[in-house]
Design brief:
Elements lengths: L1 H14 L10 H11 L1 H9 L2 H12 L3 H11 L4 H14 L4 H6 L5 H4 L9 H15 L8 H12 L2
Helix pairs in contact: 2-3, 2-5, 4-5, 4-6, 5-6, 9-10
Length: 157
């Protein structure tokens, strides 16, 4: 009888469904920041390289909620992680210029620049063209000074 119970338990253990990992969403990360604090969340995700890179890719989309994640994490980040976040937000500039210009914890000098290491002239030109055109769509009165500064930084040689 004992053997049947042990075999039954082994069978159930082997065939039990494992719960799917929670989907990485901006909302779930922002909730974790509320519960654990931004520093702890940054440590957890930055130590898991694939998840960190997934977060950076999401930020690059310019989605407002992902930009909020970037702002929360940037407030507590250090050198390397700050640079990662700056690059991702700079990549988001042509997609959501108003959202980028509204962000706290990001210097315009870092997010209004070409976000590529050793880019070709064509890459620089293409990015500047897209970002400058996107900046022209910003109509919010409270963003006009930041828009002008951003454009100046972006177009500097």
């Amino acid at each position: 009888m004992r053997t049947i119970i042990v075999l039954s338990l082994l069978f159930l253990a082997c065939h039990a469904e494992t719960p799917a990992p929670t989907k990485l969403t901006a909302g779930s990360i922002l909730q974790q920041v509320k519960e654990k604090g931004a520093r702890k969340v940054l440590q957890e995700y930055s130590s898991a390289s694939l998840q960190w890179h997934a977060i950076l890719k999401h930020i690059e989309t310019g989605d407002a909620e992902w930009l909020a994640v970037a702002s929360e994490l940037r407030a507590v980040s250090d050198a390397g992680y700050s640079e990662d976040l700056d690059f991702s937000v700079a990549t988001a500039l042509p997609k959501n210029p108003s959202g980028v210009l509204r962000l706290k914890h990001f210097a315009l000098e870092r997010v209004c620049d070409v976000p590529y290491l050793e880019p070709s002239e064509k890459t620089v030109h293409d990015f500047q063209t897209k970002a400058a055109a996107a900046l022209e769509t910003v109509r919010d009165a409270d963003l006009q000074d930041r828009k002008k500064k951003c454009r100046t930084i972006l177009m500097a040689p």
